[in-house]
């Protein structure tokens, strides 16, 4: 039985979804967390939680692709890393999407606020955690030396877990990937964003294909949002090279907290 509601979506709500996708594309390009915008918007438009999540994943896929185009220069010399990074991203995304399809709407509704709060908390504590790790372990800060050798098993395992989470829900996957790359010693935020966008695209691709095959995607909404996300993804990738990181971090934190509170209040 299809999980998609037969209720038509008013044009005004479709515009709200497209606007949220535009902002989400920008946010995803810079620091991740775009689902924190699109998911509540779709819930407000009347979609069930699982349908909203699947539709959001499909809608934001083009933004991930356009973000990669914007960051393609930042991956120069890191092609080997990108290839190996794709494997756990694809496998994890497939596992997470399958788990979502076996979760009831009621259970997913109860889980989502805590996933949002957890991702936001990780983001807020990221810098302090990275300072502690680098200070204690004396991790080298030469990004060029890091990409000259293959990624560690620990990073690939962590990416598999991020991929599972990304296929299941996705909010904060960019934050999680930036944190893991930082723990490995990366310091160049633009190269980190390039790898993050590539990993996110891989896991979102397989999840989107899984959701589309299952028949739970609300396609009129997804297509409208995709238009906004494409523009937002490219604009965000360009703007990320100039926008102060403190502004981006503050905006993502505020969105995460407010979204979590709203999702918790509606239980």
What does this entry look like structurally?
The structure is a single chain. This protein is mainly alpha-helical. The chain has one domain. It has 11 helices and no strands. The chain has helices at 11-30, 35-44, 49-70, 79-101, 105-137, 143-147, 153-168, 173-183, 189-214, 219-239, 245-265. Helix 3 crosses helix 9 (189-214) and helix 5 runs parallel beside helix 8. The two termini are 25 Å apart. Mean pLDDT is 79; it is low at 1-7 and 136-141.
User: Overall 3D geometry?
Assistant: globular
Quaternary organisation of the protein chains: single chain
Mean pLDDT score, rounded?
Answer: 79
- Measured by DSSP, the beta-strand proportion falls in under 5%
Number of helices: 11
Order of helices and strands: HHHHHHHHHHH
Protein traits:
single chain, 267 residues, mainly alpha, 0% strand
Summary, kept brief:
The protein has 267 residues and is mainly α.
Show the helix and strand layout:
Layout: H1 11-30, H2 35-44, H3 49-70, H4 79-101, H5 105-137, H6 143-147, H7 153-168, H8 173-183, H9 189-214, H10 219-239, H11 245-265
Helix pairs in contact: 1-2, 1-3, 1-10, 2-3, 3-9, 3-10, 4-7, 4-9, 5-8, 5-11, 7-8, 7-9, 8-9
């Amino acid at each position: 039985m299809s999980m998609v509601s037969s209720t038509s979506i008013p044009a005004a709500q479709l515009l709200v979804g497209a606007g949220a996708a535009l902002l989400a594309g920008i946010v995803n390009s810079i620091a991740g967390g775009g689902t924190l915008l699109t998911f509540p918007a779709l819930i407000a438009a009347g979609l069930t939680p699982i349908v909203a999540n699947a539709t959001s994943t499909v809608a934001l896929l083009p933004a991930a692709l356009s973000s990669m185009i914007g960051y393609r220069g930042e991956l120069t010399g890191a092609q080997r890393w990108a290839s190996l990074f794709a494997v756990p991203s694809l496998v994890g995304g497939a596992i997470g999407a399958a788990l979502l399809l076996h979760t009831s709407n009621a259970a997913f509704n109860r889980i989502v606020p805590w996933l949002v709060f957890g991702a936001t908390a990780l983001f807020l504590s990221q810098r302090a955690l990275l300072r502690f790790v680098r200070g204690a372990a004396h991790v080298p800060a030469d990004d060029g030396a890091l990409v000259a050798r293959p990624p560690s098993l620990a990073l690939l395992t962590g990416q598999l877990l991020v991929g599972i989470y990304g296929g299941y829900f996705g909010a904060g996957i960019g934050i999680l990937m930036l944190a893991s790359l930082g723990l490995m010693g990366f310091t160049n935020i633009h190269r980190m964003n390039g790898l993050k966008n590539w990993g996110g695209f891989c896991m979102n691709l397989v999840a989107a294909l899984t959701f589309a095959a299952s028949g739970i995607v609300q396609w009129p909404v997804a297509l409208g949002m995709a238009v906004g996300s494409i523009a937002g993804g490219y604009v965000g990738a360009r703007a990320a090279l100039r926008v102060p990181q403190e502004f981006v971090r503050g905006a993502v934190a505020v969105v995460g907290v407010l979204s979590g509170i709203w999702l918790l209040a509606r239980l």
